[in-house]
Design a protein that fits this description.
Elements: H1 4-20, H2 25-39, E1 46-53, H3 59-62, E2 65-70, E3 73-79, H4 94-105, E4 110-117, E5 124-131, E6 140-149
Antiparallel strand pairs: 1-2, 1-6, 2-3, 4-5, 5-6
Length: 151
């Protein structure tokens, strides 16, 4: 049982934390709920398409790519446009994307982190990181789609 002293402290701290962060308490709760639902998906190994829209130059950094994950590790990354395999460096599993989301909010100059979750499997279908006005070449968007059991 939670003591009234701890509850009072939590109620005092949470609003201050939530107001000063580009990723507030309600967004953190949504992330935790989505992660729990994702963890309970009906398959362990999976594949998905993803893209990272940013001020990056090479398609190897932006995609779109098809990633296959087995036993929680990336086993292949394929450029969708060419069908060629590329190194997994800089790419992520869906579990890693879940872990990255709160860290985006802690990056200097970030104004907001907006996440949309898939209605069925609860993975982050879209993660947009917006920076404060005046910061050049900043901001990025991660999109995830076509998630299913690994072939």
């Amino acid at each position: 049982m939670i003591s009234s002293r701890w509850l009072a402290l939590a109620l005092a701290v949470v609003p201050a934390w939530g107001c000063s962060s580009p990723f507030d308490l309600s967004e953190r709760i949504a992330l935790d709920v989505a992660r729990e639902r994702w963890d309970n998906r009906p398959f362990q190994d999976y594949a998905f398409d993803t893209r990272h829209d940013c001020f990056c130059v090479a398609p190897e950094q932006t995609g779109p790519v098809r990633i296959v994950v087995r036993q929680d590790a990336i086993v292949s990354v394929t450029l969708i446009e060419t069908g060629g395999n590329i190194p997994a460096d800089g790419w992520y599993t869906i579990e890693q994307l879940f872990e990255l989301i709160p860290g985006f909010a802690g990056s200097g100059g970030v104004e907001d982190v907006d996440v949309e979750y898939d209605d069925t499997l609860w993975y982050p279908g879209s993660v947009e990181v917006r920076y404060e006005e005046g910061i050049l070449d900043a901001g990025s968007r991660y999109t995830v789609s076509a998630v299913g059991p690994a072939p």
